[in-house]
From TrEMBL:
The lineage of its organism: Eukaryota, Metazoa, Chordata, Craniata, Vertebrata. InterPro entries: Cyt_P450 (IPR001128), Cyt_P450_CS (IPR017972), Cyt_P450_E_grp-I (IPR002401), Cyt_P450_sf (IPR036396), Cytochrome_P450_fam2 (IPR050182). This is Cytochrome P450. It holds the Pfam family p450. Keywords: Heme, Iron, Metal-binding, Monooxygenase, Oxidoreductase. Belongs to the cytochrome P450 family. Its cofactor is heme. The keyword Iron applies.
Amino acid sequence: MLAQTLIPHALAQLYSTPFALYNAFPSLMRWIPGTHKSVEQNNQELHSFIKEIFTKQRKKLDVNDQSCFIKSFLVKQKEEKPNPELYFHDENLTSLVADLFGNVQKEIETVIGSAEPQMIHRKQMPYTDAVIHEIQRFANLVPTNVRHQTTQDITMKGFFLPKYFKKPDDFYPQHFLDSDGNFAKNEAFLPFSAGKRSCAGENLAKMELFLFFTKLLQNFTFKAPPGAKLDLTAEVGFTLRPQEHDICAIPRY
């Protein structure tokens, strides 16, 4: 399992060397010694881990529950069953999930590398910025804050209220990305309230969120302890907070 956490970093190092040829000539490169062999082993371990996850999901699949990417893919796969090799097949699912695992850390490695994260990096890291925004939107940390919920476009007393988020019940960073992958603001995003109730420390909070988040993911990969089952149901109060549980922070370097 530890090897799985090292894959994004190892691949980044690999692709900056001549062994990137492995991707184009795998049958040839497997006879040549080098770092690509350990990376390929790590890659296989990750794929096995992913397949184990969606195999379990498939056994208890509910077509009416598409609350995550894997479930949605499996439902589409079931609909496409007469032609299972068209697109929604297991190999595509494995590759797509593997890509999602490494997106934020890959962007951190590409833009920041081993340097100290700074606010000037934020504009160069649209996906990381989008993930931070989506965490704030999806988590709804202060449920007693400004109330707003439009599941569809509606006109009320002459005011047009659009459906702001494409997938309000899903964790979907694309809510804050445009079609070109650039960060896109959304006026419905109000984690710091609005008007006279607006948080005075909003700018400081945004800066701290970015720096702490990138610094942590730059140095660690977080995962549940072996065999542990995490209950992500929040405890409700003035704010929502996670239940107490153990977590493993595995160094990436």
